[in-house]
Each structure stands twice: as C-alpha cells, then as structure tokens.
C-alpha cells in the first residue's frame, strides 16, 4: 500500500510503498476513510528537532483518523469487520490511573505505551495510508449512526482539542460572557461551532485572513475581527470595556499571546492551544487580575465520544476539503500558504 511518511526531522514527507499492516493480538487494522492534515504536522516537518519529543521519524503521518474496521487481532471483541470507527489519537499505557479514566495524553507510565507520549502519526504509523494499525483495540471507537468518516476524522483532533479546551472553561461561558477564538483554521473553526453548540457565550473570531473570518461567521461567530495593533481594544469596546471571559489561542505566537492577555477580562481564562513557539511574560500586573493562563493538549476518550455525538447530530460539522493521498502534500502546502479553508482531509 502507499503511505505518506515523514523520513526525518526538518524534511518533507514522501509518498512511498510499504507493507499492509496485520493485527497482532489485541490489535485492530482500520481501513482509512479520512485522515486529517493538522498544522502540528507542519511543525513536525519544519520546527521540531531530535530530542524535542520522546520519539523520532520515520513514521507515516496522520494523527486524526477514521474509517472502517478492516481486520481484528486475536482476543479483540466488541468490534466487527466493516464497522465505521474513529481512532482516538493519543496512546497511553492503558493501565495507569490517567489512562483508566481515558486521559491518555497524560499517561503516567509512558514507558509501557506503544510509543512514549505519542500515537499513530506521532512516532508510530498514522492514517495517511490505505490502512492503519491501531496497537490497542480500546483506541478504536465505533462511530455514532450517520457520521461520515471524512468528518469524523477531523473531529478526533480539530474537534476534540478545542472541545477539551472549551469544556475546561464551561463555567465561565454563560449568557453574559464572551469567548474569543484566535486563529480560525482547522481547530479554530470547529472551536467556534463547539462554543455555539455547547454554550450561550458570544463568540468573537480573530484571524489575519479575511477568508478565515468569513468561515468563522459561517460557523456562528457573532463578530469577526482582522487581527492588528488595535484588536485588544476592539474586543474591549465590543464587550462594554470588560474584555473576553475566555480567550482560546489557536496560534500561540508572541503576538497572539500578547493579544489574549490584553483582551482577557479579570477572572477570565487564557488558554494556549496553538504551538506557535511564542512566550508570554507573566507578572502580577502584566495580565488582568486573576486571569488563569493554561495550556491544553488534545483531549480525553470520553470527550471524543461527546464530540462524535455532536458531529452525528449535526451540531458540529468541520468544513472539510478532501484530497487524494497523492495530493496530501498539496494540502500541507496550502495550509502553510494560508490558502486552505477549514480542515484538509486526505481520503486514500
Ligand atoms: P491552521 O493552519 O489550520 O489554522 C491556523 C489559523 O491561524 C489560520 O487561519 C491562520 O490564518 C491563523 N493565524 C496565523 N497567525 C495568526 C495571527 N498572528 N493572528 C491571528 N490568526 C493567525 O492550524 P490548525 O491545524 O488549526 O492548528 C493550530 C495550532 O494548534 C497549531 O500550532 C497546531 O500545531 C496546534 N495544535 C495544538 C494541539 C494541542 O493539543 N494543543 C492539537 C492540534 C493542533
Ligand atoms: Zn493535531
């Protein structure tokens, strides 16, 4: 079969011929129906160096995956061949307290995980191929009725990551609250939809691209702002001087972190999701009083079940642009150039 592989750090992915995987005991092979292209993959190609994470290339890219069960290893029960499924992306040991409650991103026994601190497409082979081996059957979740794998795939990261971040701040997202989404790309546009579907807060979308703002409005944003020198002030004006109760930064650059801190309301949340390499100097008087600054990484398995439910009910619907496997590199190029709308999904 063909697979899009990252051969090394600081290198471009290559479409190569590899063996089809076969499942060992407790494992599942998924026939890929959709594999999302995430901006994190661009970071893997261009920004990461050996030692940044506890795993290394080569591996097949693609950490947001859905499709159909293709083959079951010995001892796997509760799944049937042909069944539509999503793959929960972060793979922990399965037995520590965190993994038991479904929070694999924070596995406390990573030495026993299939790959320490990673998953398929992050150290082990991912879904940018015709088939993908999932080493633990518990990571394969049946899709609720009516959810297309092409849409389920981005929900496993571009949906799950904002859902987890938003859920953490639900208590601050009442009817009189405002949420700001910075970066209305793959994650951000789904984030806007999740805010509208699960909270009564007003939503302000911020991006450097007009097309992204248009998408933000299509997704339900109440206001959209091109980011510039005055954006924090515009956010204050739009909120009666208060600022944003919750800022979700899906970029994570110096400029967006500074914007988030300047636009946040006292006692608000500033949540850093984007891994744009920026830093924010924090001191007692440098951010509004009692603003909580937090990072989030991916989400839990129970949260993925909830996101898939939102998807099946049509409350959240990623704007997916599909690409065949041999054009996956085009999808990444468009993402890098800022000409992609929503999420690119590779359909092998
Ligand atoms: P994307 O390329 O699809 O979207 C990024 C968006 O941000 C684009 O619309 C772009 O125009 C906008 N943008 C860029 N610079 C900006 C700026 N200075 N101000 C305002 N908007 C700006 O990327 P994505 O796939 O949505 O990923 C977003 C970030 O989140 C990446 O850094 C990615 O690695 C990271 N990520 C983090 C997690 C996590 O668990 N924390 C999970 C997935 C992705
Ligand atoms: Zn990702």
UniProtKB/TrEMBL annotation:
The keyword Zinc applies. Its EC number is 1.1.1.1. CDD domains: arabinose_DH_like. Keywords: Metal-binding, Oxidoreductase, Zinc. Pfam families: ADH_N, ADH_zinc_N. It comes from the Bacteria. Its cofactor is Zn(2+). Residues 2-346 form the Enoyl reductase (ER) domain. Belongs to the zinc-containing alcohol dehydrogenase family. PANTHER family: ALCOHOL DEHYDROGENASE 1-RELATED (PTHR42940), VACUOLAR PROTEIN SORTING-ASSOCIATED PROTEIN 11 (PTHR42940:SF8). This is alcohol dehydrogenase.
């Amino acid at each position: 079969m063909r697979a899009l592989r990252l051969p090394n750090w600081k290198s471009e992915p290559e479409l190569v011929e590899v063996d089809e995987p076969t499942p060992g005991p407790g494992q599942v092979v998924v026939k890929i129906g959709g594999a999302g292209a995430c901006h994190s993959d661009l970071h893997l190609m261009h920004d990461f160096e050996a030692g940044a994470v506890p795993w290394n290339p080569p591996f097949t890219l693609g950490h947001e995956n859905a499709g159909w069960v293709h083959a079951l290893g010995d001892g796997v029960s509760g799944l049937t061949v042909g069944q539509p499924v999503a793959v929960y992306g972060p793979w922990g040991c399965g037995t520590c307290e965190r993994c038991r409650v479904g929070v694999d991103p924070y596995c406390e026994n990573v030495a026993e995980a299939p790959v320490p601190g990673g998953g398929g497409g992050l150290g082990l082979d991912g879904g940018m191929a015709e088939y993908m081996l999932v080493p633990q059957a518990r990571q394969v979740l049946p899709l609720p009725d009516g959810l297309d794998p092409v849409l389920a795939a981005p929900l496993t990261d571009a949906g799950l990551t904002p859902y987890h971040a938003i859920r953490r701040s639900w208590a601050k997202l009442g009817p009189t609250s405002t949420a700001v989404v910075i970066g209305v790309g793959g994650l951000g546009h789904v984030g806007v939809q999740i805010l509208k579907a699960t909270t009564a807060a007003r939503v302000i979308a911020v991006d450097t691209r007009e097309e992204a703002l248009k998408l933000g409005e299509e997704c339900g944003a109440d206001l959209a702002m091109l980011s510039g020198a005055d954006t924090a002030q515009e956010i204050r004006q739009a909120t009666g001087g208060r600022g944003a109760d919750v800022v979700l930064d899906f970029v994570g650059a110096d400029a967006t972190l500074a914007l988030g801190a300047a636009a946040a309301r006292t006692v608000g949340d500033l949540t850093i999701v984007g891994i744009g390499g920026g830093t924010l100097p924090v001191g007692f008087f440098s951010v509004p009083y009692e603003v909580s600054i937090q990072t989030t990484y991916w989400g839990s398995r129970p949260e993925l079940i909830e996101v898939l439910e939102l998807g099946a009910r049509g409350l959240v619907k990623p704007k997916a642009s599909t690409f065949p496997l041999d054009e996956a590199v085009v999808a990444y190029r468009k993402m890098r150039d800022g000409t992609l709308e929503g999420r690119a999904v590779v359909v092998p």
